[in-house]
Design goal:
single chain, mainly alpha, 7 helices, three-stranded antiparallel sheet, 47% helix, Mutator_transp_dom, 3 strands, elongated, Mutator-like transposase domain-containing protein, 205 residues
């Protein structure tokens, strides 16, 4: 009984282990997040058919931040204390930023992020690569357009890897779908259940 008491007291006296909280990402690490790309690539590889919804209301515009949000702030007040508010930029990374709503009497409010990385940075680099333009060309474009500089070089290579991973998954998916359709059409033509004799044509490139 004495041993059982000592054992139970030692167990009850244990301190609960504190779980380590994940370290917050800095501005460079946030743009290198690859989890969403890997998850999307796995879904594409295992999917039978992809249906992409089209949203006609989504359009992108280049805005003058000071001009636009200064005009908006003249007609907007804080819903808590009815004070005037200001719009400011924060957490800038490449072409992405967070919009802060600053009230002199209340705590600043920031627009929540969807994931740690800004979509505009990946979209911009992807568009530049489709046009055959690399990081230096992207920097020149941003300079000529009076835009903030794009992401740093290390982040640029991470984005390129993410684009390659996503493009490879989409390519593999459609190639598999094409082979399945060709096998189906060939089987119908030859009146058989399965075949490995397929005709392939190419342009030599």
């Amino acid at each position: 009984k004495e041993k059982e008491f000592q054992r139970s007291s030692s167990v009850s006296g244990r301190k609960d282990k504190k779980r380590k909280r994940p370290r917050p990402l800095n501005k460079y690490e946030a743009e290198k997040k690859t989890a969403s790309i890997s998850a999307s690539a796995k879904k594409i590889k295992t999917a039978n058919m992809i249906h992409v919804p089209e949203e006609q209301s989504i359009r992108y515009r280049i805005l003058n931040f000071i001009t636009v949000f200064s005009a908006i702030s003249e007609h907007v007040k804080c819903k808590v204390c009815d004070s005037n508010v200001e719009f400011k930029a924060g957490s800038s990374r490449g072409l992405g930023l967070k919009i802060l709503i600053v009230c002199p009497s209340c705590n600043p409010i920031s627009i929540p992020l969807i994931g740690p990385a800004y979509e505009i940075n990946r979209r911009f680099i992807f568009a530049m690569r489709l046009l055959g333009i690399g990081l230096n060309g992207a920097r020149q474009f941003c300079g000529l357009m009076d835009l903030p500089p794009p992401v740093v070089q290390s982040t640029y290579y991470i984005i390129i890897k993410n684009i390659h991973k996503a493009a490879s998954s989409v390519c593999d998916f459609f190639l598999r779908q094409t082979v399945k359709e060709e096998i189906k059409e060939t089987c119908i033509e030859k009146e058989c259940e399965d075949t490995s004799e397929l005709m392939v044509s190419g342009d030599g490139t």
